[in-house]
Amino acid sequence: VAASSAVDADQLLEAAQGGDRAAVARLLTMVERGGDAAAAVDRVAFGQSGRACTVGLTGAPGAGKSTLVSGMIGVARRAGHRVGVLAVDPSSPFTGGAILGDRVRMGDHALDDGVFIRSMATRGHLGGLAVATPQAARVLDAAGCDRVVIETVGVGQVEVEVAGEADITVVVVNPGWGDAVQANKAGLMEIADLFVINKADRTGTAETRADLEQMLALSQGDRPGGGRPAGIVTTIATTGEGVAEAWSAVEAAAEDLRTTGVLDARRRARTEAELHRVLGARLAEQVADLAGGEAFRDALDEVQGRRLAPWDAADRLVRLGRVPGDG
Ligand SMILES: Nc1nc2c(ncn2[C@@H]2O[C@H](COP(=O)(O)OP(=O)(O)OP(=O)(O)O)[C@@H](O)[C@H]2O)c(=O)[nH]1
Ligand SMILES: [Mg+2]
Question: For residues 71 and 115, is the Cβ–Cβ distance under 8 A?
Answer without folding.
Answer: no
